[in-house]
Amino acid sequence: MKALFDDPQFSFQMLRMLGSAAQGAADVGECLATAYRIEEGDFESWHREWLELARRTHSTAEDCLAKSHEVSALEAYARAANYYRAAEFYLHGNPEDPRIGELSDLGTACFEEVVRLGTLDVSPVKIPFEGSTLPAYFYRASPAGVSRATLIAQQGFDGTQEELYGMGAAAVGRGMNCLTFEGPGQGRVIREQGLVFRPEWETVVTPVVDHLLTLPDVDPARVAILGLSFGGYLAPRACAFEKRLAACVANGGVYDFMAGKLPLGATRDQMREYVKSDPDGMDRSMREAMKGDTGMRWAIENGMYTFGVSKPSGWYMKALDYNLEGIAGKIACPTLVIDTEEERFFPGAAKELYDALTCPKTWTFFTAAEGAGDHCQVGAPLLAGQRIFDWLEETLAPAT
User: Fold this and answer.
1) What is the pLDDT of residue 266?
2) Taking each helix axis from N to C terminus, what angle separates 231-241 and 202-212, rounded to the nearest 10 degrees?
């Protein structure tokens, strides 16, 4: 679905912003007016215009709060948090850029005001993790202290957990708790702690489950996990080893992170040997490709940043480790695999995952005709939420 820009990467990110309006994290008119000022394919222009909107909306929020207009302040803080995220999105080509941390902090501060002012029962959480902590939010369904089904929700390659506020609200509205978190390579964990992605995602999710099972609000037999985008690899990977999870949602499913990124007929091992034999040549080839492809430039720059490497070839080598071959068959819990008609980032990956599963499984396909054909249904979050939560309610229904 084209959203104003001819550049596919900018168009997708614009659709992502417009879709967030359904959950109060953007205003369509503000987004359109901002987009009209952005230069096609120019990362700095994208940053500059979203930052201007973020600052203006943040100022509005603070003015409203000072005058005790708390509902207006909450609404403006929610939009400002998302606008700061957008302003920071394309800055990862220079991991030392101070704007990365500054904008992340501003976005987090705005979101914390949303949590404080809102009517949802949301608690910031720090989950113990390998001598440090993972940031999380626990959305508690009312009344407190009642043992309920709980959804663990996480982003993937580039999202923040603040974007999952609408999902938390959707869960609570259905009488379900929700815990969002960020792990290595994600959100504040990469920006503040420098912890990078790892393929063994069960080592990340197990401490999250450990924490949840200490809460009286959580039914230990009804804990599910949902992963968005690259999270469609991370969540299934965790379920293959963390057997306390009762259900899994992969939106969209990712069997092999590098599927489609290998030369025709080449195996993963062959590519490892090729890159080892000529890393400089691989770097030159990848950097040349980045010049003419905004999407590739962003993916590689963000990949180097979140995987903790300084060269494109280093990211390529690490990314080869993210696949579920020989692992997907170990998943035992019911799993919902989601695909979209116009999947651009992982075409065919969801079907590969679905076919490899031996557990109870469900296939859901979103189409362009219904406005939900893009990656993770970014333009139709309410439609996507309806189908996902209907499945979760049915799957996690208490035994009678």
Assistant:
1) 85
2) 70
d(CA 63, CA 61): 5
Residue 287 and residue 279: Cα distance in Å, rounded? 12
Beta bridge partner(s), residue 365: 339
**CA distances from residue 17 to 26, 29, 40, 299, 396 in whole angstroms, order as listed:** 7, 11, 16, 18, 31
Spans of the chain below 50 pLDDT: none
Same domain assignment for residues 111 and 231: no
Query: C-alpha distances in angstroms, 87 versus 104, 225, 304, 356, 389?
Result: 10, 29, 19, 39, 31
Q: Do 240 and 294 share a structural domain?
A: no
Residue 247, SS3 per DSSP: strand
Nearest to 320 by CA among 389, 269, 378, 250: 269
CA distance 191 to 301: 14
Number of H helices, E strands in the chain: 15, 8
Task: For residue 76, give its domain range.
Answer: 7-119
Contact partners, residue 69, CB within 8 Å, separation at least 6: none
Helices 28-35, 43-66: axis angle to 10 degrees equals: 140
> What are the percentages of helix, strand and coil residues in the chain, rounded to 5?
50, 15, 35
| pLDDT (0 to 100) of residue 400 | 60
Burial 3-26 (b: 16+ CB within 10 A, else e): bbbebebbbbbbbbbbbbbbbbbb
Is 30:7 a contact under the CB 8 Å cutoff?
Answer: no
Contact criterion met (CB below 8 Å) for 243 and 332: yes
Domain limit, last residue, from 75, 94, 119: 119
Q: How far apart are CA 51 and CA 61, in angstroms?
A: 15
